[in-house]
Amino acid sequence: MAVYTKVSAEEIGQFLTRFDVGTLVSAKGIAEGVENSNYLLETTLGKYILTLYEKRVDPADLPFFIALLDHLSERGCLVPPMIADRDGQKIHSLCGRSACLITFLPGVSVSSPTAAQAQATGQALGTMHDALTNFDQERQNSMDHDGWRTLAEQCGPEQLDRIAPGLAKSVAQELDQLDEHWPHDLARSAIHADLFPDNVLMLDDRVTGLIDFYFSCTDIRAYDLAVTHAAWCFSEDGTEFYDDISHALIAGYESTFPLSDAERDALPLLARGAALRFLLTRAYDWINTPADAMVTRKDPQAFLHRLRHYQTHPDIFTS
Amino acid sequence: MAVYTKVSAEEIGQFLTRFDVGTLVSAKGIAEGVENSNYLLETTLGKYILTLYEKRVDPADLPFFIALLDHLSERGCLVPPMIADRDGQKIHSLCGRSACLITFLPGVSVSSPTAAQAQATGQALGTMHDALTNFDQERQNSMDHDGWRTLAEQCGPEQLDRIAPGLAKSVAQELDQLDEHWPHDLARSAIHADLFPDNVLMLDDRVTGLIDFYFSCTDIRAYDLAVTHAAWCFSEDGTEFYDDISHALIAGYESTFPLSDAERDALPLLARGAALRFLLTRAYDWINTPADAMVTRKDPQAFLHRLRHYQTHPDIFTS
Asked: Are strands B97-103 and B92-94 parallel, antiparallel or unpaired?
């Protein structure tokens, strides 16, 4: 949670002259996400987010993200599209970084979601998937099923076992299971792929925005619901499962975008995949981030607990 | 530049119910200052800053800061007073920290001030000093002239020389000079004591707010102008002096609060003291902050260059 690139008020004021957004009244660096540098701007005409893309976002992916957000926004989904300058440009360069001016959305990210909030989020995810059925741009999921074995190898068995004794073997067995059973005939779509509570803006029980689409990609559509399930239905440390949140999330989703029988049957396995994905990326970051670095390391074991729960309770999606 | 204490949206929403400020619409952790954790809040009624005080601010000093800001605000100075809850309380406890809800002020902090902006800042400082002539609360300056020798000893001669060869001797000589000549008969007052461009909010050439009063204290009043001079009239690395900014700052100050002859005569020495104060505190932080820590270390030599300029150009305040 930090601002990586310092942009002066003079530079921001100059940057805004390319747009029809009024003149700068306030600019605050905000601690949003760990991927980019973000400024919350207020102008004489409104509020905006200025994002400078740091190393984790490939500028070559920005056109996909922009097209996706435009597509969703045009169809009434509450997402923050990038703003075009007077020449129609949405991707800019600022302080040596690719930069976009982005629509500000009200709302806060809840830390302890209620069932009503999970239901609203499920609805919003279903509405988004509905709107994406005719979106045809594609982006490979850099964290997809095919990449998990490589990620595990990059972590290395000794390092995994240092996180939790026996973790390397558990991961290897799960990879074998998923390779054997991973579905290949489910509907694919553009998906958010990272819809944690952090990335949902809410006011009371109402969703006011889905944000942070920088992992969005093309993958099994129901996998997006599985990721959201793994992100929302457990205590942060993964040791407690919340059945009421689980039911509310899925009921909300199905109220706007019903699952097919094949998707519903696949949910237990997709959820195991989602848990393994975050277990592996967190393990990789844990191993490769110094304990005293600027970025707070997230405990991989929170997703090991989730994986164990999905392995031992496949019935949670049907009961 | 970081948020140190994470406060959930639910906790902030609950906290706001103590005040008549509307309900929460948006909350963003902002990277403001290095001292405290700050959130920019938007509610149904307006914008506010929520500050949680980390280790550098002693909660026992908060009543002084609050009284000072109230005094200034009541006299029309553009400063951000703390907001009372329905019971009249301004100091609260949140996530184990002392916390205040603070008035939001528009404006941005400039990085490369113009002479017009320096003049406006001098005016605002003079207006503030005028308003403080009948403010009678006192707080000792923890970084005052009496403390500089101790600070130099805490740094240690070897460590100082590691920052710049010969620095220990230069500091020792300057301390002797200042001890011999430091004025004891100049008017004292509550002062800001840290009025860097970061702490002045502006829109174009107009000051919209003086902020960050957490070093404010009782000291020689003209020393506040000397600190502001050292902060505004040089390039950031201290190697370039801007004569036009210097003249504009002092002319602006005198347009609202004329210096006495004794104060004007003392400015060269007070400015050397100001340069030494920031040289020593930056050296102390440099020595005691790991190079890879979360906080960006500021180069002490930027104020060694300023000190050298003040030593060799005492005429800049009279010519």
From this structure: antiparallel
Query: Closest approach of chain A CAs to the CA of B42, in angstroms?
Result: 9
Main-chain dihedrals φ then ψ at residue A118, nearest 5 degrees: -65, -40
Phi first, then psi: what are they for A301, rounded to 5°?
-65, -25
Q: State the Cα–Cα distance between residues B269 and B258, nearest whole angstrom.
A: 18
CA–CA–CA angle B211, B215, B217 (5° rounding): 110
Residues 6+ apart with CB under 8 A from B202: B107, B108, B109, B110, B117, B120, B121, B208
Compute the residue count for chain B.
Answer: 319
Which residue's structure tokens are 């530049």? Answer: B1
How far apart are alpha carbons B216 and B219 in whole angstroms? Answer: 9
**Among candidates B2, B8, B106 on the partner chain, residue whose Cβ is nearest the Cβ of A26:** B106
**Structure-token pair, residue B123:** 């005016």
**Inter-residue contact A38 to A23 (CB < 8 Å):** no
Question: In a mutagenesis test of the B interface, which of A5, A8, A47, A108 is the best target, namely the one with the most B β-carbons within 10 Å?
Answer: A108
Contacts of A210 (CB under 8 A, 6+ apart): A77, A78, A79, A124, A125, A128, A192, A195, A199, A200, A201
Cα separation, B264 vs B250, in Å, equals 10
- In this predicted structure, the answer to whether residue A251 has a pLDDT above a threshold of 50 is yes
Q: Alpha helices of chain B — where are they, by DSSP H?
A: 9-16, 62-74, 115-131, 145-155, 157-163, 167-181, 221-232, 243-256, 261-288, 301-312
Written as six digits, the tokens of A312 are: 């031992």
Among residues B111, B152, B131, B121, which one has the least CA distance to residue B248? Answer: B121
Find the mean pLDDT for residues B217-229. Answer: 98
The verdict on ipTM greater than 0.95 is: no
Residue extents of the structural domains in chain B? 9-103, 115-317
Residue A278's pLDDT band, with cuts at 50, 70 and 90, is: very high
Alpha-carbon span A217 to A269, nearest angstrom:
20
Residues in B touching A48 (Cβ below 8 Å): none
- What is B115-317's CATH number, 3.90.1200.10, 3.40.630.30, 3.40.640.10, 3.40.50.300? 3.90.1200.10
Q: Do B110 and A10 touch (CB under 8 A)?
A: yes
Task: For residue A8, give the nearest of B3, B111, B203 by CB distance.
Answer: B111
Residue B274 structure tokens: 């100001």
Condensed to tens digits (0 to 9), the pLDDT of residues A129-165 reads: 999 999 999 999 989 999 999 999 999 999 999 999 9
**C-alpha triplet B84, B90, B91: angle, nearest 5°:** 160
Rounded-to-integer distance, Cα A300 and Cα A163, Å: 8
| Chain A contact probe: residue of B28, B50, B235 with most A CBs at under 10 A | B28
Torsion A186-A187-A190-A196 (CA) sign = negative
The domain B9-103: what is its CATH number? 3.30.200.20
Chain B residues touching A3 at Cβ < 8 A: 1, 31
pLDDT at residue B1 is higher than 50: no
Phi, psi of B41 (to 5 degrees): -105, 140
Give CA–CA dist B156/B106, Å, rounded: 42
Question: What is the amino acid identity at position A216?
Answer: S
**Do residues B48 and B24 lie in contact, with contact meaning Cβ atoms separated by under 8 Å?**
no
